[in-house]
Amino acid sequence: MFNYICKRLLLLIPVTLGVATIVFIIMRVFLTDPSESVLGKYATPEQRLSWRKEQGLEEPLIKQYGIFLKDVLSGNFGKSYKTGASVVNEVLLRFPATIELAVSAIILASILGITMGVISAVKRNSIFDNITSMIALLGVSIPIFWLGIMLIMTFSSKFIPSGGRIDVLLKPTGGTGFYLLDTLVSGKWNSFFDVLKHLILPSITLAMYSTAVITRMTRSAMLETLSQDYIRTARAKGLSEGKVIIFHALRNALIPIITIVGLQFGSLLAGAVLTETVFSWPGIGKYTVECIQASDFPIVQASVLLTAFVFVLINLIVDVVYAFLDPRIKLTKRDE
User: Fold this and answer.
1) Does residue 181 form part of some domain?
2) Helices (H), the chain
3) Residue 82 domain-assigned?
4) If you ran DSSP here, which 8-state letter would residue 87 be given?
5) Within-domain flag for 81
6) Stated pTM of the model
7) Do 134 and 270 share a domain, yes or no?
């Protein structure tokens, strides 16, 4: 297992380089000249040329690429064209907000999705199964931005805020950037519950699609598992239906479920842009879109690389979890 994990971690290097290359090409080829956004439309051609030389954008493309790869490998992403601040600080300042929202959404989606999927499979072709199927269909069909706006119009109130992460008067003091953790550790319960209230609507919005996908996958996996011989044997031995479903059927159906949960979590990290925009959530997705519009190359490159790294890391964690869920899974010598 240790050798397998080390091998997968080493694979992060070519993946990171591949993503870095794609991002570099797209930023240089398809986006507008960043000097227009930085200096404004009234800047003279000489001023723009001087700024581009200062940023190394007048160098040959292959030389720019070599410098970019060297900076990526050394962890030096430079400074933002837009703010002049360190790119690492700018990204790390906003990434915890996206992580916090994505974790809340995937927890909600997993609880609802697995629960509905299991019950739907056990009560196949019942009214509950039909309702669950309809909810799942709606979940994958409803646009996220529309759902977010509808939730704001319907439920937004003093007790359920519709924007931001926390009341400006209750902003926590902590070094992690994860407001739930910071307020919990510091014992500021008013701030903790205020953060929870701000998470309600964006978490529901972001979790809707994932809930539908997890529900359908859970139902499918459970139906396949419930038809196996060992399930009939467990029932013949006199085990209660609850034990058969939870400890025998669900446990053996968790492999595809965990896979889809891991993939959905990675997708939530990368695809929270619309939710963050609708709810004015100060996360990395919304900020990256703003920087793309401003042609802020360093910020976009760092944000995409960080998201890709986390996505691959999540897939590694999912693979490791497989071995704990199902002892029959063994790593072959080829995998090791």
Assistant:
1) yes
2) 2-10, 12-30, 34-39, 45-54, 61-74, 87-122, 127-141, 144-155, 179-186, 189-226, 229-236, 241-243, 251-270, 273-278, 284-293, 297-325
3) no
4) H
5) no
6) 0.85
7) yes
